Structure formats: C-alpha cells, structure tokens
C-alpha cells in the first residue's frame, strides 16, 4: 500500500499576498470556521474585512456566539512590534474581547507578550497567537493548518465547560421552540417548521411567496441565552447592487416602522430588527416571551404585506 508524504508548502505559493489573497480567503465563513475550531471559539458570524480603526484597518472582525467582538490580525513573515501595536489599537478601537494574531512565525518576545496579556488583563479578554502553515500530499490540494502557539490560561477547560453547558441547553432549545409552535393560533398565516429546531433561531416563511425563498426572505425569531434577550427580524435578502441607505430611507419614516431597527446584517442581508429582554432559560417566562414573538411576527408580516412586498418585488424583477 502506497503511503503519501506530508510536504510543507510556502504559504505564498497558496496565497501570494496577505491582504489580497489570504485575508479574503480566511474571511469566508467555511474557512474562518477552521480557525475557530482550532481555537475552540465556537461559531463566528457578522464577518467584516478591512474595518477602519483610526488610521489603521483591522483585517477581519466578527462576533462569537455570545455577541462579543473578535478581531483577527494577519501577518505574513515573522511577527513584529508594529503589528503588536496595531492589535492593541484594535482592542480599544473595536471594543474587542478576543484578539487573534495569525502569522507565519511568532517570535519568542511576542509569545511572551501574549502570555502576559492573558495573565494580566481582566476576565473576559482573550489573546491568541497562531502560526499559519500549508501542507499537501503529493499532487493533492494544499491544506491549511492553524498551529495555536499561545492561548489564554485554562482556555481548554473553560471551553469544555461551555460545550457541556451548550449540550445541556440543547434539549431546552427544542422544548422552547416546541412551546412556541404549540402557542400559535390555528389561522397562523406563516409557514413554520414541521418540528421544533435544535438551534437558537427559527424561521417563518411567507406562504405563496416561494420565489422569494431563494433570497432568504422571511421572518426569524431567536433567543440569546448569554445576553438574556429574545428577538425577531424580517430578512429581505441580498441586493448588493442597490444602495440600502437610500432604499430604506424612502420607507423607514412611516409610522409602521416605529421602534424598528434597519440594518445590513451578516453577508449583506437586509434586515429589520426588534428585540426584548427575556431569559430563555426561565421557563416560567416562556409564555410572555412567546406572546411577544408572535406579536413581533404579526407586525413584520403586516409590514411586509402593506409596505415592502411590492417595492422588494420590483428589485427582484
């Protein structure tokens, strides 16, 4: 049986330039997930590239499962003091809780700096030093490898506790959404999932509007255990060729939109948002939370039918 040999590659043969090749590649959700797995960070979303921070630009910013800001700074070659200074700028300028420094080689003095930061900053702030490598076997496609050089003290233990807590909440999520589905009236106008999902959100689809599903148009309700909040949002889809600020300004001043937040969410989806305090783990409060969600969905459905369906259909056509 023939066995291949792992061969380390020059990362510039895979990504010639850090800013034009590597950073856009890493910012793709499927690739950023590989880094998140290596760091035990959980899922990351709300990904942005080249975010202005003073006179600098953070390579990648995103948010973790608890909504906290994560800043990722990439550097080809050997780590240097300039990038260390930029990282500290991003920490303050973006109000980040997690900073990840990805480089080809992390110098010993910078390893010591990250170790010191993890030991002396307040709880809830985390710093990682990661070396990026690329490997292949024979003529196979190159595979990235994220080698974690420095991480917070007791990080693995704390993340294992988080994973156990998430597993314990998995059954609660199903019960939570099942209770909401049971509470819906019989004449409910939106198409709901056939079974309660085991996730933090649930989607309601517009009936008779199947062609809009490819744009992910619909109403979503969600629960956030960490922030003790519940919410709902109306997703209108992606229209990168249209100026969202100009389009929304022609509609947002109507009384029907009072208290509704307009935004461009993760990956460019247009969204209208509502949220409400509420601890999803407090079962005694579920009835109130579910009633709020039902009314929020009713409101978004009315907004859709009366104010947004026709203008949005014109964009699609």
Summarize the structure.
With 317 residues, the protein is α+β, with helices and mostly antiparallel strands. The chain is 37% helix and 31% strand.
Query: In what range is the share of β-strand residues?
Result: 25-35%
- Tell me the CATH architecture of the largest domain: 3-Layer(aba) Sandwich
The coarse silhouette is: globular
CATH topology of the largest domain: Trna Endonuclease, Chain: A, domain 1
CATH class of the largest domain: Alpha Beta
Structural class assignment: alpha+beta
Number of strands: 13
Uncertain residue segments: none
Sketch the topology as an H/E string, one letter per element. Answer: EHHHEEEHEHEEHEEEEHEEH
How many individual helices? 8
């Amino acid at each position: 049986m023939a066995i291949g040999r792992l061969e380390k590659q020059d990362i510039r043969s895979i990504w010639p330039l850090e800013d034009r090749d590597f950073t856009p590649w890493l910012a793709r959700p499927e690739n950023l997930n590989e880094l998140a797995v290596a760091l035990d960070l959980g899922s990351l979303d709300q990904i942005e590239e080249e975010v202005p921070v003073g006179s600098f630009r953070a390579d990648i910013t995103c948010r973790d499962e608890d909504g906290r800001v994560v800043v990722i700074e990439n550097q080809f070659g050997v780590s240097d003091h300039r990038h260390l200074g930029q990282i500290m700028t991003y920490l303050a300028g973006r109000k980040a809780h997690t900073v990840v420094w990805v480089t080809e080689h992390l110098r010993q003095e910078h390893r010591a700096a990250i170790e010191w930061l993890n030991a002396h900053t307040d709880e809830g702030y985390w710093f990682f030093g990661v070396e990026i490598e690329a490997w292949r076997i024979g003529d196979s496609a190159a595979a990235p490898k994220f080698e974690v050089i420095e991480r917070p003290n007791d990080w693995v233990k704390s993340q294992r506790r988080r994973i156990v807590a998430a597993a314990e909440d998995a059954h609660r999520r199903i019960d939570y959404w099942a209770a909401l589905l049971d509470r819906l009236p019989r004449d409910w106008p939106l198409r709901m999932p056939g079974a309660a999902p085991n996730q933090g959100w649930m989607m309601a689809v517009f009936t008779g509007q199947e062609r809009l599903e490819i744009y992910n148009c619909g109403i979503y309700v969600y629960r956030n255990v960490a922030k003790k909040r519940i919410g709902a949002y109306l997703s209108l889809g992606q229209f990168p060729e249209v100026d969202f600020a100009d389009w929304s300004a022609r509609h947002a001043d109507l009384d029907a939109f009072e208290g509704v937040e307009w935004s461009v969410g993760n990956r460019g989806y247009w969204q209208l948002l509502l949220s409400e305090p509420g601890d999803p783990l407090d079962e005694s409060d579920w009835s109130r939370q579910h009633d709020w969600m039902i009314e929020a969905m009713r409101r978004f459905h009315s907004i859709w039918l009366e104010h947004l369906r026709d203008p949005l259909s014109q964009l699609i056509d």
